[in-house]
Amino acid sequence: MKKQWTLLAAAAMLALSGCGGNGNDGGNTQGHTATAVTTEQGDTAHMNHSTSSELPEGMKEAVNPKFNIGSEAIMKTNHMPGMDGAVATIAGAYETTAYSISYTPVTGGERVTDHKWIVQEEIKDAKASPYESGADITVTADHMPGMKGAVATIDSAEPTTVYMVDYTPTTGGDPVHNHKWVTESELAPVK
Questions:
Q1: Dihedrals φ, ψ of 10, to 5°?
Q2: How would you class 111 by CB atoms within 10 Å of its CB: exposed for 0-12, middle for 13-18, buried for 19 or more?
Q3: Where are the domains of the chain?
Q4: What is the pTM for the complete model shown?
Q5: Residue 45 has what DSSP assignment?
Q6: For residue 23, is pLDDT > 80?
């Protein structure tokens, strides 16, 4: 029983520390991304609020996106709790290829599987054409602890418009600003 409480306390501390940010963001939560990692004990938790609002070098704004900057859309995805069904305000729209990846954090720990999303411009020395499923790449994105510099395997690739969005989680809590990334297929018009 003591071991279970110790594991529970450790998981809670990990989850809380991942949500803290570094205090340099002026109160904004940027690039809010989460991925569930299942341990052998069955716990799931792996969340981070990236503090960078910078775009990767080479990002190209979408010329005619389905959702314009400043408009609202309903999110139909659950990269993290409270996203599915939340009303998002579009903060940016970019043409690229979005990738779902699996990787082991450079900081150690459990392998992260099916992390959605990184984009073509977040791959070290990216080639001009999209990568195929199964390709190994080096990640330059810093969405999660231990992601930057990790060697990842591409699970899927989707040429699409990706959106940076602001939203308030349906589960409550502080508004999230500049979440990177939501694909066009994960958004629906507000009715």
A1: -65, -45
A2: exposed
A3: 2-189
A4: 0.75
A5: -
A6: no
